[in-house]
């Protein structure tokens, strides 16, 4: 009995000692490979046992602290110059060693899908850049997506800091990588990216609950999701709506019935299939009010020289989901419209002569089909077959749209709590931000909401007015023949107005988007234009031309509108033509017509014979101002603008 008690006491003491030895812990940001911000007071923080003594050693300096009753501790290390790699050690009852620490510039990269857009989605477009990406001085810390409605989290989840190289860079934000590369190439200072973004999310999701109080609707919405019962009810409803829709679509799909061959194997009578053009949406080709499942097929002739060899089937972008078959065999699928379909076709499926491609398209709402102006081809050994043109289609099942589901990631303050607040102790150089698409329908509100976000983050980081650089919305959606109103133009206007805040900069990109893709692939120029803004705003290079021409004032002289501009750089110029386009002019009747225009020095003169007494001018005021061609001689596009303040489409929309 005595031996047993002694053994139990020994085990208890050993376990207690083990627990004590593993007391001090650090947030995930403070980990191997981290980049610390030069020239800013640095905080190191973490957790331990209440009252535990903690010491941090870095670059020969040791500082101490004692954890509070809540087990938290913070140590201010002071400021340091760029350099490294260094080692940082943290010692409590246990000791932690952080290796390969650099001191340089840290940028918080955030927003929605165009910031999230990873380099892996650009493997072909930027194959050379990826192959040459090895640079241990450029690093990313990718924050795992997480929302919180119970208050700010203490920490984030992440795989840690990653050096840029051809493997790791595939997970980097593409915009952020090109931004960081340009800055490193110029200043030779390590660059760290804290990448915290989430596709589709509105600005209100990234603002703290306290700063949302002036926005009554968002404050109420946040109060609602703070109740776990309400969140559960939302999730339960989402599940029912989604499961019911897919259950009905699957059961009703005539192309895949249990007791009959599927249409990708046995398509049925030929007269049951109707002609349709690919690419294109079926709603725009007479197949009205059909959500659900539509089957497509196309016969292609494969030359004998390519038979028996592997092929690649490229099917552009499909709205929304597809399952694709080649000669009756499954070759690939994707679940959303934002990814290029590239499917490998095994050699044994490629026959000489007639081959059949079958695509089962599932569309839950809005337009369904094949998105225009994307690649559609079958790449064979020694030949390429163009797949654009006539296909055949057959409706598998027509259903009502799926209906509204609550996305918790889009709810107010949730992403601030989960993906911003936990890192605000970490010193940064500034923020790069690419967001706004999800707020375009509420653009007037964004005039106040976006500045509120910037002010909020600056208050939380407690670093004063750090540089906040952002991307203006790209050109998107079909171009229109006549001038008119535009929610995207109004959102761009709100972004331009936000430049009134100190230490802000904007990259204008309405010339490098894609009308049919909300995720334009040219991320290199976006990063480059953000880097120019950083050179001016963050690095105080006042000689750099960092922006395109900015409208300043309007004067009416002799029936013509004379517009003055700032940021003209080496002077105004036009691209794609011999005169400025995309200018519209109106009189007191507020009816805009396309205008003639010419450059005179740092001014643009605008007129129309149909508007003898001009009152207002607009430039590039459209979702997709594809004709806009006014630049400065440094090649940066003029920022879209209007001289009027007439109410737009989004006035009062909240």
UniProtKB/TrEMBL annotation:
Does Metal-binding count among this protein's keywords?
Answer: no
Please report the stretch or stretches of sequence annotated as the Sialate O-acetylesterase domain.
Answer: 414-519
A Pfam family of the record is Glyco_hydro_2_N
Boundaries of every Glycosyl hydrolases family 2 sugar binding domain copy: 233-382
Keywords, alphabetical: Hydrolase, Signal
Gene3D superfamilies registered for this protein in UniProt: Immunoglobulins, SGNH hydrolase
Q: Where is the signal peptide?
A: 1-22
- The reply to whether Flavoprotein figures as a keyword in the UniProt entry is no
Q: Which InterPro entries match?
A: Galactose-bd-like_sf, Glyco_hydro_2_N, Ig-like_fold, SASA, SGNH_hydro_sf, SIAE
Q: Please, which domain of life does this record's source organism belong to?
A: Bacteria
Which family is it part of? Belongs to the glycosyl hydrolase 2 family.
What's this protein's name? Answer: Sialate O-acetylesterase
């Amino acid at each position: 009995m005595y031996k047993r008690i002694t053994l139990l006491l020994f085990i208890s003491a050993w376990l207690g000692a083990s627990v004590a030895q593993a007391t001090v812990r650090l947030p995930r940001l403070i980990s191997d490979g981290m980049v610390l911000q030069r020239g800013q007071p640095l905080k190191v923080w973490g957790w331990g046992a209440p009252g535990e003594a903690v010491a941090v050693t870095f670059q020969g300096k040791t500082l101490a602290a004692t954890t509070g009753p809540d087990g938290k501790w913070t140590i201010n290390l002071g400021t340091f110059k760029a350099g490294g790699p260094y080692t940082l050690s943290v010692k409590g009852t246990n000791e932690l060693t952080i290796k390969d620490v650099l001191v340089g510039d840290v940028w918080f990269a955030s927003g929605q899908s165009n910031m999230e857009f990873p380099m892996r989605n650009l493997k072909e477009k930027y194959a050379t850049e990826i192959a040459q990406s090895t640079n241990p001085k450029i690093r990313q810390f990718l924050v795992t997506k997480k929302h919180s409605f119970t208050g700010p989290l203490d920490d984030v989840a992440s795989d840690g800091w990653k050096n840029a190289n051809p493997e790791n860079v595939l997970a980097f934000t593409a915009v952020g990588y090109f931004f960081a590369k340009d800055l490193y190439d110029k200043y030779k200072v390590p660059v760290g990216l804290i990448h915290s973004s989430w596709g589709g999310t509105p600005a209100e999701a990234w603002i703290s609950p306290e700063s949302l109080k002036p926005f009554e609707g968002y404050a109420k919405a946040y109060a609602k999701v703070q109740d776990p019962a309400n969140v559960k009810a939302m999730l339960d409803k989402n599940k029912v709506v989604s499961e019911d829709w897919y259950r009905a679509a699957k059961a009703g799909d005539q192309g895949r019935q249990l007791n009959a061959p599927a249409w990708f194997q046995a398509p049925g009578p030929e007269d049951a299939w109707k002609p349709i053009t690919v690419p294109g949406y079926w709603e725009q080709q007479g197949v009205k009010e059909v959500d659900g499942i539509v089957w497509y097929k196309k016969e292609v002739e494969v030359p004998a020289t390519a038979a028996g060899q592997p092929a690649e089937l490229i099917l552009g972008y499909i709205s929304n989901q597809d399952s694709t078959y080649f000669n009756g065999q499954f070759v690939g699928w994707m679940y959303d419209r934002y990814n290029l379909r590239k499917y490998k076709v095994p050699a044994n499926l490629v026959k000489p002569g007639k081959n059949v491609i079958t695509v089962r398209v599932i569309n839950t709402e809005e337009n369904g089909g094949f998105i225009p102006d994307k690649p559609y081809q079958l790449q064979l050994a020694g030949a390429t077959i163009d797949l654009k043109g006539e296909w055949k289609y057959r409706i598998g099942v027509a259903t009502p749209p799926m209906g509204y589901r609550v996305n918790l990631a889009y709810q107010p303050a949730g992403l601030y709590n989960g993906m911003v607040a936990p890192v605000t102790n970490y010193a940064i150089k500034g923020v790069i931000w690419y967001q706004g698409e999800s707020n375009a329908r509420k653009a007037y509100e964004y005039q106040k909401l976006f500045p509120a976000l910037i002010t909020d983050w600056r208050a939380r980081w407690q670093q004063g007015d750090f540089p906040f650089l952002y991307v203006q919305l790209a050109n998107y959606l079909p171009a229109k023949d006549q001038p008119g109103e535009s929610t995207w133009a109004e959102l761009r206007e709100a972004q331009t107005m936000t430049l009134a805040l100190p230490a802000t900069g904007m990259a204008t990109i309405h010339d490098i988007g894609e009308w049919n893709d909300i995720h334009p692939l040219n991320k290199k120029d976006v990063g480059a234009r953000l880097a120019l803004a950083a050179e001016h705003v963050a690095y105080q290079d006042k000689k750099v031309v960092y922006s395109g021409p900015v409208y300043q004032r309007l004067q009416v002289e002799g029936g013509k509108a004379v517009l003055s501009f700032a940021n003209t750089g080496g002077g105004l110029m036009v691209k794609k033509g011999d005169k400025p386009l995309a200018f519209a002019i109106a009189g007191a009747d507020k009816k805009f017509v396309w205008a003639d225009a010419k450059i005179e020095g740092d001014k643009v003169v605008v007129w129309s014979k149909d508007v003898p007494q001009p009152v207002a001018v607009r430039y590039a005021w459209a979702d997709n101002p594809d004709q806009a061609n006014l630049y400065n001689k440094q090649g940066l596009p003029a920022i879209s603008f209007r001289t009027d303040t007439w109410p737009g489409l989004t006035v009062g929309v909240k």
